[in-house]
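Structural prep section.
Before we set up the soaks we want a predicted structure of the protein with LLP in place, mainly to decide which crystallisation condition to try first. Input record follows.
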Amino acid sequence: MTITVLPGIPAGTGELSIWPASTAPLPHGGLAVGGVSLAEIAERFETPAYVLDEAEVRGRCRTYRDAFPDAHVLYAAKAFLSRAMVRWVDEEGLGLDVCSAGELELAVTAGFPPERIVLHGNAKSPRDIEAAMRLGVGRIVIDSPSEIARIAAAVGLEGRQKVMVRVVPGVSAGGHDKIRTGTDGQKFGLSLTDGGAQHAITRILGQPQLELTGLHCHIGSQITEVKPYLVALRRMVGLMARVRDMHGTELPELDMGGGHGIAYRPGEATLDLTALARRLRAELVAGCAAAGLTVPRLLIEPGRAVVGPAGVALYRVLAVKHTGEKVFVAVDGGMSDNPRPALYGVRYAPRLIGRHSTAHPRTTTVVGRHCEAGDILAEAVELPGDIHPGDLLAVPVAGAYQLSMASGYNLVGRPAVVSVHEGTARLLVRRETLEDFRSRDIGG
Ligand code: LLP
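Run finished without errors. Recording the tokens verbatim:
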């Protein structure tokens, strides 16, 4: 595909600052990502469609590796997983964090080395544990006391499984109540304050089938400040020192989870990864020196910050309605492909693509097509006043926790996923069709 990129509008500033770095304006109001016109993708693959910029994903993996040269960086697959994604992450040298047999099997059957995978989950099913054993997962993060005996039994007398313990360090952070996981009173992990974590560690160390490699915490998601990580790290190092004092064991690994915040709209705060890396390392080295501990290997688990900004959602406008003071622009997707505005009140910045409009901007509410008044994709955004059915809207920063949380609501079907790279578009995941729903429905 030959495209003409307009000169003079750098993607790194202004409205395009949250778009993939490859984003380039085209003549007549078009926009290209990865060297491919978004309007052409909409034509060829239909809408709604999710576009994933391969170079942006790979670039973000490299940014992490460069910023954290001494750490193991694991991509949190829950943000988005497909076989191509597995391959990109593998080729960029990252590990993988999974939280179900499904994610684990998909990754391993796509060729990801199981020893570089960590299995999470607050309620691991028998199938999760069976898959972990059969596929030889690298580490299992123990999240509740009952898992200790279950995993040890699954390992069997001959084997040994590397495990970590998920600790709740008592630090509250994150973009919304539903994604704060660092304090007591939520379902994840074992408490530092009530002694649950210490007790579990003692029991694990007494299990010959389990090798405790370290401690894990994940304090929340969409965190834009470094400070909560430093507080959590200090407490985790404190616990490592207590483990050494009580059991004479120095744990070689410390996993600080993910949660690194990104901007969904221009001007919003993002977590400064370079500052995070530098200050985590300094805190770790200082804390360990003070406690007389050997510095453990640091692990981190970013999901959103790797894939979120690499994704763009494309929708076709189906209807425009003026009701009272409001203008509603309804598109052909909605809460079944992006439940995040409804769940967390997240605000997005959609944009008209595919044609140039000279109309004055107008405050518009972009809604989905689902049978629910809360099916709002973007509340009160400025869009050209002449938007009409047939127009295309693109929503940037759509790569994380949208498709992976997509549902079958109203049997609309989950969108196609298309990768773009150096001028070529490739279908990664085909659109879900009525035939998919019909074939699962065998009750007749
Ligand atoms: N590690 C663990 C153990 C996690 O539970 C998570 C996310 C991550 C790493 C990656 O966090 P990230 O870097 O992507 O923030 N659905 C919500 C986010 C839920 C996050 C769940 N755990 C959303 O759409 O904002």
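Observations: The chain has two domains: 14-53+309-440, 68-302.
Flagged for discussion at group meeting.
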